[in-house]
Amino acid sequence: MRKIERAPLPTLLNSDKLIKLLSSKELSNLFNLIDEKYYYWDKVKYQELPEGVSHEDIWTIVKLRRMGTPFKINFGKYNFYWNVGSRLQGLLHFLDMNIGGSLESSSIVSYGDKNRYLISSIMEEAIASSQIEGAITTRKKAKEMLRKKVKPKTKSEQMIVNNYISIQHIIEKKNEILTKEKLFYLHKLVTYNTLSSQDEEGFLRTDNDINVVDTTDGSIVHHPPDYVELDFLLNDLIKFFNEDDPDLFIHPLVKAIVIHFMIGFIHPFNDGNGRTARALFYWYLLKKQYWLTEYLSISRLILRSKAQYARAYQYSEIDDNDLTYFLSYNLRAMKLAFDELREYIKRKNEEKKQISNLLGVDGINYKQTQILEWYIHEPTLLLTIKEVETRLGISNASARIDLKQLVEKGYLEVRNINKRTIGFIKTNKLDTARKKGKNTLEKFEIKNQSIVQQSLF
């Protein structure tokens, strides 16, 4: 990724010209556009302007407006600020209404589906967060490894398993305060057996030989603070995580994103900073009761837009530590993640309804319906008890009972995998039941359509 051009220093405007620019109706819409879309200099310099007005003049006004924000904080000797315009306020409100609150809405995730969706989302997040950092694998292969609890064989697989374990750890500890020891333990979890030396797992870097570089040309895009500052910076960050300033309300979503940014900025570890940053972001949102965060895979969206993710970091740092660029990117990613989750659940609910109708099977429970659904989507599937336990988030005993009952009803049969492990495959009875159910459903739909047509005339 090419290095971002530095903006010119603000020009010295006399009071008459300053008032003229600020009061110009012609420029008012342009200033609002620049602020709402939060353009950096590389876009501002191409805006069409009236005669006699320079792009440097416009940038000066933009900076004056932005730096007048009340949202200013310090970490160590470093100053940061951000703005919350109407567009970001709209995103914050939307996310508050849809992913936050102490009352969990069954309209998004039904009670019976919670474990299944939660396990799936944790897997997705673990895989995507690892792929952002270079893990090489397919989602299908990675999910199969997690479901079957296969021991990782490569660094990429180890990264995914580590992230999966780390997210489960955070869900368990979400209401606890953050300490340095807990931060170091989290880093150890996400980096276990993936760094050049195990001595780096859960320990701060001890030199300044760490730079964030452009992978295309090797140029330095971020030089982290001196390692001697790490203790002081982390003290400030941990205080920021645990405490709310009574004199300045900072929206929880904003705080989570600032925490995410600061781990990347401070770069306290030799490696694994990105994975740790996203884990802390996740932790803080759950701590603040944004319960649906457990079901969102933010990293999947980041993975698809890695260049924009990196550029949001760069814009924020190069523009005097203006965090608005990073806030804007992450809030948009969260909204898209929610929209995807809603569409996914809607699609799965429709599939489940169709499958229940098509099967025409009586006397099976909710979990058993889910198991049969997997076989319909993947006819050659060979399931073990352990995999059903993992997929559904149920006990080993419960998985055994459900599979045994499906065998007794004739929908599954047992296959020996080895001397100690058995698997389960579908039988022809499941296909027969599905065809019978499909015919019944088609007859019902034709009859129902006829009734509707008659009522219209």
From TrEMBL:
Residues 331-358 form a coiled coil. One of its GO terms (molecular function) is ATP binding. Pfam families: Fic. The active site is at residue 267. InterPro entries: Fido (IPR003812), Fido-like_dom_sf (IPR036597), Fido_containing (IPR040198), WH_DNA-bd_sf (IPR036390). It comes from Arachidicoccus soli. ATP binds at residues 271-278. The keyword Cytoplasm does not apply. This is Fic family protein. Keywords: ATP-binding, Coiled coil, Nucleotide-binding. Residues 178-332 form the Fido domain.
